[in-house]
Amino acid sequence: MRGVAMCRSIKRLRERDEIASDEAIREAALQYVRKISGYRQPSPKKAAAFEAAVDEITAASARLLDGVTKV
């Protein structure tokens, strides 16, 4: 299996001790899921799985950013 290049348009969401807004974190998660799944907009049958993945990645990203910015 060939490696998949990460989407270069996903921006860093942490600068020093400041983290991005919830909206910016969700947008990055959406870009990630689009890249991994190969779907920009999934079909109605696949929409629930797509949205669940975005929700899970958003939550995991927020936990990560919260954890790395705590003193």
Q: Biggest sheet, open or closed, and with what strands and sense?
A: 2 strands, antiparallel
Number of helices: 2
Distance between the termini: 40 Å
Q: What share of the residues does DSSP label as strand, in percent?
A: 5-15%
* Strands side by side in the biggest sheet: 1-2
Roughly how much helix do the residues carry, as a percent range? 55-70%
How many strand elements?
2
Low-confidence stretches: none
Along the chain, the helix and strand elements come as EEHH
Tell me, rounded to a whole number, the average pLDDT: 85
What shape does the CA trace take?
A: elongated
- What is the CA-atom radius of gyration, in angstroms? 13 Å
Structural class: mainly alpha
How would you describe this structure in keywords?
single chain; 71 residues; mainly alpha; two-stranded antiparallel ribbon; 2 strands; 59% helix; 6% strand
Mind explaining what this structure looks like?
The structure is a single chain. The chain has a domain at 18-66. β1 and β2 form a beta hairpin. With 71 residues, the protein is mainly alpha-helical. The N and C termini lie far apart (40 Å). Helix content is 59%, strand content 6%. The model has no long low-confidence stretch (mean pLDDT 85). The protein has a two-stranded antiparallel ribbon.
